[in-house]
Design goal:
Elements (H helix, E strand, L loop, with lengths): L1 H23 L4 E8 L10 E6 L17 E5 L5 E7 L2 E7 L7 E9 L4 E7 L6 E5 L15 E5 L1 H6 L16 E4 L4 E4 L8 E4 L2 E2 L19 E9 L12 E6 L7 E9 L10 E7 L8 E7 L8 E13 L3 E7 L2 E12 L9 E13 L2 E10 L2 E9 L2 E4 L15 E3 L4 E3 L6 E3 L1 H4 L3 E18 L2 E13 L39 E16 L3 E4 L1
Parallel strand pairs: 1-7, 6-8, 12-15, 21-26
Antiparallel strand pairs: 1-4, 2-3, 2-5, 5-6, 9-14, 10-11, 12-13, 14-15, 16-19, 17-18, 19-20, 20-23, 21-22, 22-25, 23-24, 24-29, 25-29, 27-28, 29-30, 30-31, 31-32
């Protein structure tokens, strides 16, 4: 008896641990409701079929992550039904004509991640077919089963609002969320950027050192199906988040082929000018009565360079009604050009010109993405995604005490110089910086499966792996030989000195792997319950 009790306790502990993990990986939503007749009486044992819609309420074709989705469920003795683990998107729900009731088709049912869409389906006696348009907006009905404070930005809304090239530009539309450069990113309900958690397709991508989102994971909006920002009521899996949890779900294919090709560009001509910078110059000493200080404003010039954002998306069926794909290549190319003049570090009256240099840097965020969704059987859905998102720098722009968006229009002192010894020798200015740069390797892989053997039982599993190697800036670095000096007595006149090692060529790899398995059983016992 004691062994059985210990075994039961162990099993329940595993179940509850899995439940917490399953709650945290929010990449899907749900649909629930009741089927009633014209008199308001519940209708049990009604078969409902949920299928991904081909068009939205506005008539535009969808390619959401639920493309090709199909599931059949049955109402219980109370006429209640619930479908969980439904990908975000637009769906139609059809009842099967039986028991003297006709067929009813509910169209444009919107499912958002982390929410249960509420429906009350009315069936009528006879053999007629009735169609009902649930909603003509992209906003899902209020979820009365969830007390979390969250905002969902759907694909339809993303198409309508102004936005930047990355998905974080959408966060400005969320109440209580704003970009805050001095708090490490986005502030959610007053919290700092390091208190947030960012998730893409169920895998956390928050930087483990800084607690913020690396720009390499600020994926383009062309890849995004839906974004959710949750500021309270999130699960124990996100116990480290005291700000907000930002979840992103990527797009998928459907039974129709679609393509999107285009290019955006950004020029500095539309940017505002930089603020003047106040600098103080001092000379002499107070003790000698020769101390002087001079304040002077400097006006940095704008950095030049046109940024390009091309995109190419293709999606469609591999096997119609069974397997679908979505692929995208959407790089972001940032070009920076700066003309810098160097002066001696003195007030204007005695300042002299040293030299001028032109610096260039090309930074490319490589966003290549692929997703496959499959329904090999009606009760099994599989999903796999791969994101390849390295960052490549070609050339560099040195910074000085006076900078304009990490670039310089002028500086005090000498130009950057490096001695490579041998046949290369000493390089100065852009001869040195044009050969610098670096590569930051990054990728993200996810696999997920949902098995529904009955309308009351759902089993799902997930594997994900994120890779990031933060070693950008490692091209063409002069080799330094570490030296160790011993400190001698002051009478010898020998001082201590050390040199740093060439640490930018050392790997700085972080790998996140996640395995999750959840079983959910829906039943009635003195009320409706969901056991995970």
């Amino acid at each position: 008896m004691k062994k059985n009790l210990m075994l039961m306790t162990f099993v329940l502990s595993i179940v509850f641990c899995m439940a917490e993990t399953g709650f945290g990986q929010e990449t899907t939503g749900g649909i629930e409701g009741t089927v009633k007749d014209p008199a308001g009486a519940v209708v049990p044992n009604v078969t409902l079929t949920i299928t991904a819609a081909g068009t939205t309420a506005t008539g535009t074709t969808t390619t959401g992550s639920g493309g090709g989705f199909r599931r059949t469920i049955t109402t219980n003795e109370e006429g209640f039904f619930r479908a969980i683990q439904v990908p975000p998107g637009v769906y139609s729900i059809t009842t099967t004509a039986s028991g003297g009731f006709g067929e009813v088709n509910y169209e444009n049912v919107v499912v958002a991640i982390g929410r249960n869409t509420q429906l009350e389906i009315a069936v009528s006696p006879g053999t007629t077919t009735t169609s009902v348009d649930v909603s003509v907006s992209d906003a899902p009905p209020v979820d009365t089963t969830n007390n979390a404070i969250q905002t969902t930005i759907s694909a339809q809304k993303i198409e309508l609002i102004p936005k930047t090239t990355g998905f974080t530009g959408l966060l400005k539309t969320v109440p209580g969320t704003r970009p805050e450069s001095r708090s490490g990113g986005f502030s959610v309900d007053g919290a700092s950027g390091g208190e947030n958690v960012f998730v893409i397709d169920g895998q956390e991508v928050t930087n483990y050192r800084t607690g913020t989102l690396n720009e390499t994971f600020n994926i383009p909006t062309q890849l995004v199906q839906e974004v959710q920002v949750k500021s309270s009521g999130f699960e124990a899996a996100y116990g480290g988040a005291t700000g907000g949890v930002v979840s992103v779900v990527t797009r998928g294919g459907s039974n129709d082929f679609h393509g999107e090709f285009g290019v955006q560009f950004e020029t500095p001509k539309f940017n505002g000018g930089a603020r003047p910078l106040l600098t103080r110059f001092t000379s002499g000493t107070v003790a000698a009565g020769t101390f002087r200080q001079t304040a002077e404003y400097f006006q940095p010039e704008k950095a030049q360079g046109v940024n390009f954002f091309p995109t190419a998306n293709v999606s469609g069926p591999i096997i119609k009604d069974r397997v679908w794909f979505f692929t995208s290549y959407t790089p972001q190319i940032f070009n920076t050009e700066v003309d810098t003049q160097y002066f001696t570090d003195q007030p204007a009256s005695t300042r002299t010109f040293i030299t001028s240099e032109s610096y260039k840097r090309k930074r490319t965020y490589e966003y290549a993405f692929g997703r496959i969704d499959a329904n090999p059987f009606n009760n099994l859905r599989l999903t796999g995604t791969f994101l390849w998102n390295p960052v490549v720098d070609e050339g560099s722009v040195p910074t000085t005490g006076f900078s304009n968006v990490s670039t310089s229009a002028f500086g005090f002192g000498n130009v950057p110089t490096a001695d490579y010894k041998g046949s290369i020798g000493v390089l100065r200015g852009n001869q040195y910086t044009n050969q610098q740069g670096g590569r930051q390797t990054s990728n993200l892989v996810t696999f997920a499966g949902v098995f529904t053997p009955t309308s009351k039982l759902v089993i799902d599993g997930r594997y994900s792996r994120g890779f990031l190697n933060e070693k950008n800036g490692n091209y063409f670095i002069p080799t330094l030989t570490p030296r160790v000096f011993s400190c001698g007595p002051a009478t010898v006149g020998f001082t201590c000195a050390t040199t740093g090692i060439n640490n930018l060529t050392v790997k700085d790899i972080s790998i996140r792997e996640s395995y999750d398995f959840t079983g959910t059983y829906i039943f009635n016992a003195g009320g409706r319950h969901e056991l995970k």
